[in-house]
Every structure is written in structure tokens, then in C-alpha cells.
Amino acid sequence: MSNIEQQHIWHQRLQQAVRGRLEGTVLSAFNANVDVVVHLDNALIQQMLAGNSDLDWEQIDRIDVAELPALRTREEFIAVLIDRLSQGKSLLLVGESTGLSLWFGEHFPKRYDKLGGQARIMAAQLASLDATSVLYSPILSKRQAEVLHPGVLFPVVARGSVRLELAKKAARQTDPTRSPWVFEYGKDETYEFGHRRITTPRANRIIIVPRDKGLGMNFTPEFSPHLAEFGRYIDVGMVAGYHLGGPDPDDRKIMRRYFHESLQALMKMRQVNPHLKLHLEYVPMKEHDMEKEMLATMSQGVDSFGINEVEIGHVLGLMGENDLAKEIAKNERAYVLYLGGLKLLRHFGIERIHIHNLGYYVLVLKKPYLCTPSKVRQACLFGSSVNAHRALTGESASSKDIPAIGQIPLSTEGLKQLDDCAAELADKHPRAAEQIRSSGYAEFDDHYLVVVPTHVIPNPVVTVGMGDTISSSVYAMEVIGQLAQAGDLTE
């Protein structure tokens, strides 16, 4: 198949995928924020540096950003900026200094509030796509509700039973608001830090999350007795926010109990709805020993796991798969991400791993799977289109917006990954290699591999929430979506 023929076939698949629709009820839980967003540029950096002439640059040069457990000082923040901007990589760190948040407020006055938190982003996007979208968060402040899609529902307990209300009506005046700082930057932008000159290789963001003890990511004790009843409402659920920790992230015993209570809560939701599908969207934790326990515990209660190309290397390292983690860091590509995804699938005993990367997705599915791999591929193209609209406009995509994205070409990098993955499969799995090259998916004895080229937007308006948008829209389409009749080209 020539490159032109390959592009034509995938373009037709894309045009079919963008006609899909969601028909069902989706839960998004637990973390809901109002992000404070700053778009970085060199002028802003120079202004910030000019106001902080006493920075210790020798200390900044000594800081190993990869080993930072949390963010506490100005010097650590500058080191993080230099490291992440130069690599074009994302980073999420817990901010453990109230003074640092005040310093951000002083030096970054040009900022705005934006819908944030994985659960809140997913809930808003799914509502825009006309799904019945239900948000659950242990806190729901008026400020949070103001930036939420007006159609999002929230469960409340009244007269001993659960009912769904509009979230804006259910918001509580006395609830606090979690407000992370999000520093976004574009591709091919140049920054100067003294004698250091950096040009960004890709667009990304740095997220600093305040450490708010007492704001756990779970169902409240008042709501827990109604979980079985609540489970009846839901077709598919997305859970996220465990990286923020439980009531006391510094107390290992409390955290351990918190994870097990979270698992029991998810299991209760399945009591009267055994067909309920649950997806965990991953973000690394500060406490690596607790992170291993969180993954081992929560994987028992979910069917699907979403992760990006950087995070999977981290998790493989936690599992002791150091050689594979190093190979991903050294030469990240679809084939090694597949090997990593297969390790995770078997280690955690779940049925689906979705690795989202710039320009392509890699999914590993345990057989038998809930739908055909061709539907999974089409769901990925639908999710890529949803995400492309968000990257282009900064807003959630509506059902009416998606067809237009079908005219935007898929990335050449993603199409190249299909051929490269097939080439690496060819020696041991020649049939699978041909399947990947022709259809984007391959069948093995106990699993499927799906590799899908996706859109790349060079200078996205926003970068926060892209993984959440991708994972939720793709999995919802797999479970409750209705795809256009695909014809021969989807096979």
C-alpha cells in the first residue's frame, strides 16, 4: 500500500468516525478544580526574573527535577521551568508552600480561571457530546459550578434515595475550591534564563497542585450507603484523582485504608449493575510506595486504564521492568509502548490499557473484549477529533463540532508509527504485522493490539485535560457509542 493510499483510507475512516454519537449515562469522579491558567512567554519570564534578582542560580543548577518530591521554593520552580521547557514535557507536582502560591499570584497577574480537574473536564466534555453526564466530587463549590457545562448532573440524597440534579443547583456555598496553577507553553517558543537559551520542542504544561489535606478523592460517608442504588444510573464510569491522596497523604496507614474503601465503593456500584464498566485515568503520585499500593488496589475495581507515554515508563519502573522503561525513555515508539501496555494488562489483570501519545494511540485489549477492535479503532478516531477541537479552540467539542474535524488530516507521525510497528512485529508475528499495517489492529492468542494515528495541533490553545478528553470520549464511545456504518474500510 502506498503512502497516498494509506492516507486516503485513514481519512475515510476518520470521516466515518466523526459521525458517531453517544447514547447513555457516564459518571466522572472525583477531582474537580478551578485551574488558574498562565500562558508563558519569554516577556513574562523576563519580567518575573527581573523582580527576583536574588535567586540562587547555583542552587537552581544543582536541582534534579526528576527527584523533586514536591515544590517548595522559587529556585525549584525555575529549575522545573528550565527542565520542562527544554524537553517539551509535562509535569505535575504538589505545591507544599502557601508562600509559593502567593508568589505566583504576585508575579503572574495575567491569568484566568478555567475548568479543571480530571473528573470535571471529562464531565463537561461528555455533556457537550450529548451523553447524560454525571459528575461526582466530594466538594462542589459555587465557584466550581460556575465554570461547569450547564447540562452536567450531580447526585444528591433526598428522602433516603438518590436523585440527579443539575450540578449548578446542587452546588454548596460552604464548600472549598481546589485551585491548581497551570503554566502552559507552546511549540518552538524561545525562553531566556540568564545565559541559558531554550527553544521548546513541543507544546505542553506544568501543573502545581496545592496540598489540601482533608479533601479526599472518594465518595463521602453520607453518600456511601446509596452507592448500589446510584450504580443503577450509570453505564460507564471514569474515576480519577487518586494522585492527590486521601484525608492525610503523609499517613501511610490512613492512605492504605482510603484505597481499600475506594475499591469497596466501586464494587458496591456494581452490585445491581454487573455490566457497569469503569476506567481509571492515571496521574503519578508523589509517594511511590503508596502509588504501587494504589495501583494494585484500584486495578481490582476497574476494567480500563488510561496513561500517557511518559507515565507508562514510570509505572513500568515501579513494577521492576527497568529495561523496558529505559527503552521507552530512549526511543519512544508504538512497538515498545505496546510491550509496556501488555505488561500492565497482564500485571494488573484488567481488560484494557489505553496509551495516548502525541500523534498516535496504542491500546492493548484482553480477549474476549466487549466490542470489535474495528469499533475501538473508530472510537479512537472519534476521540482524537474531540481532542483536536479542544486543542484548537480551548473549549469542549459539541456533537455539531466534530464532523468538521474530519477534514483535518491525521498526523504523518502516527501513520509512520503503523509501518514502523508492523516492521518490528514482522519477524515473530508476520500476520499481526500485516493486520496492523492494513487495518490498525492485530489479533494475538489472548489479546488485541490497536495502533491509531491521530491529530496533532502544533500550537494548541490549551494542553491541560487532553489525556482526560481522549480517554473519556474514546472509552465512552466503545461502551455506549453508536458509530456510523463503517463499511469495508473499517475491517
Account of the protein in words:
The protein is of the alpha/beta class. It has 2 domains: 3-32 and 118-175 and 215-490, 3-Layer(aba) Sandwich (UDP-N-acetylmuramoyl-L-alanine:D-glutamate ligase); 35-115 and 179-210, Adenosine kinase, small domain. 42% of the residues lie in helices and 21% in strands. The strands form 5 sheets. The protein has a 9-stranded mixed beta sheet with strand order 6-2-13-14-15-16-17-19-18, with helices on both faces. A 5-stranded mixed beta sheet has the order 4-12-9-3-5.
Describe the structure using short key phrases.
alpha/beta, disordered C terminus, Adenosine kinase, small domain, five-stranded mixed β-sheet, nine-stranded mixed β-sheet, 19 helices, UDP-N-acetylmuramoyl-L-alanine:D-glutamate ligase, 491 residues
Task: Give a short summary of the structure.
Helix 1 (3-17) crosses helix 15. The chain starts with a helix and ends in a 9-residue tail after the last strand. The protein is built from 19 helices and 20 strands.
Portion in helices: 40-55%
Q: Briefly note the CATH topology name of the largest domain.
A: UDP-N-acetylmuramoyl-L-alanine:D-glutamate ligase
Shape: globular
Q: Could you give me the name of the CATH homologous superfamily of the largest domain?
A: Ribokinase
C-alpha Rg (nearest Å): 22 Å
The CATH architecture of the largest domain can be named as 3-Layer(aba) Sandwich
Q: What is the straight-line distance between the termini?
A: 15 Å
Number of beta-strand segments: 20
Q: What is the spatial order of strands in the main beta sheet?
A: 6-2-13-14-15-16-17-19-18
Our estimate of the beta-strand percent is 15-25%
Uncertain segments are: 486-490
Give the overall pLDDT as a whole number. Answer: 91
Question: How many discrete structural domains?
Answer: 2
Total helix count? 19
Structural class: alpha/beta
> How would you characterize the largest beta sheet?
9 strands, mixed
CATH C-level class of the largest domain is: Alpha Beta
